Amino acid sequence: MIVHFHASGIPLQGVEYVKQAQKLLGYEAGIKWQIFDGKPWLPFEELVAKMKEADICLGIFGTTRKSSMVIPNKVYEALAVGKAIITAGTSAIKELLTDRENVLLCKAGDAQDLASKILELKNNLSLREKIAKNGHELFTNKLQPKQIVSELIAKLSV
How do strand 56-58 and strand 32-36 relate by DSSP bridges? Predict the structure, then answer.
């Protein structure tokens, strides 16, 4: 199983929690890590190819105020490629995604919780597949530019 994480070094990403979770899991049988933390930065096409190889894509885990207010591009990217996502259960994320339906949420700033969620998806293929499938369907049915703009136009026309 491949766990993918890409990020810049900004605090909202929570790179340190991902690396701590990786250490906590140590040499857990069957887990391969793809961590791209901005040095060097991958071209977008290569990044997408790496995400498609993965079984799980990781979102953000930081504890900054901004972390709780954004849904990062990487979450949309993971939805688009149909991968199971683990990310911090922030208020912004909960506006779009539902825990155990199209995402697996963990506590922000908690490497132990992140590690346990990675193991849960490693050991529960049906949950991993359900989250990936439902997330991709959400992206396809509700998050395409045409759908987003049409909803906005309808609201502005009232």
Answer: unpaired
- What's the pTM value of the predicted model, to 2 decimals? 0.92
Query: Tens of pLDDT along 109-124?
Result: 999 999 999 999 999 9
∠ Cα 103 108 109 (to 5°): 140
Q: Would the CA dihedral through 110, 112, 118, 124 be positive or negative?
A: negative
Domain positions in the chain are 2-157
First CA to last CA distance, the chain: 48
**Cα dist. 145→83, 115, 135 in Å?**
20, 34, 16
Helix spans in the chain (H): 15-25, 44-53, 73-81, 91-96, 111-123, 125-142, 145-157
Q: What angle is formed at CA 71 by the lines to CA 70 and CA 74, rounded to 5 degrees?
A: 130
CATH class of the 2-157 domain in this structure: alpha beta
Residue 139 pLDDT: 96
What mean pLDDT do residues 119-141 have?
Answer: 97
Computed on alpha carbons and rounded to an integer, the radius of gyration of the chain in Å comes to 15
Residue that the structure tokens 């790496």 belong to: 50
